[in-house]
């Protein structure tokens, strides 16, 4: 533009680009375009697609988890596995995977916890069949139906002999406790899981014997010549060692009860054996000699009157019941009959005749052990 002063002025660029407004008004800036309804709907579709994808992935994951937890396991041959006491789910799962019983410890942990069985898995030794699923493994551990081993303690064994049995049992663990009092362990067959401690089994035997003795003692005949429960068990242990024939125990008990009432010495060979050899027992090739019968020790009932100071073995229920309820006889003697049993008599003359008969049987057999010659 040319002005009166002949100078040149540059107009702003904006004014050059803006179209002239109507009626001299300045034009308003353009409004931003609104999102179309299509775009809004498209966003909803995208969100729903995301949810569908997530759901599909979750479903596929759940299906995969279900297939692994319920499907056939990797084990190809029957095996056993020991679940240690106080083991958590993680430890159990890792051990099962390492042993090849399950495929994935993490899946087993998750399945066990989702099933609410996390705190219900029990210790023990279990047998697993080929192909057992993780759920089957879990249910087996929940049931506690583990493999049970057994140990039989025969009647008439000493505490030392019982300890020897427990020590030699390979499925038990740990050391033996201090020697228990004689007569305090119950003869019985015990069932236990692999890994049980030897001390725990001995404690089980002791508690079982304590219950048994108390039960029989409370039901005893009122006129027994024993003053306390220790003498009761002591006499039962002698009966136990004298015969292994069930039907004879009340008769043997009657002989000793009658002798106690008459203040006669019991003259029991098993008490002599215990006094000489203790809990280890008499060597099988060692006879009882006359010198043994004269040995002055507290357990020798040939030398000392009354009962010895304590039991000489662990009596079982039958021997305890026999002492609690002895047969009603007048017998004072018995001697072996050569067939595994005994002959009973009320007089010394009858007894001597029975002894002569027994010695004749031994001579016919070509032997006469010194430990049988004494009789009763």
Automatic annotation (TrEMBL):
Q: What's the top EC group for this one?
A: lyase
| GO BP, one annotated term | cell wall organization
Gene behind this chain?
mltG
Q: What does this protein do?
A: Functions as a peptidoglycan terminase that cleaves nascent peptidoglycan strands endolytically to terminate their elongation.
Can you say what this protein is called? Endolytic murein transglycosylase
Q: Record's NCBIfam families?
A: endolytic transglycosylase MltG
Q: Where is the composition biased (Basic and acidic residues)?
A: 1-12
Give the matching Pfam families. Answer: YceG (PF02618)
Organism, scientific name: Consotaella salsifontis
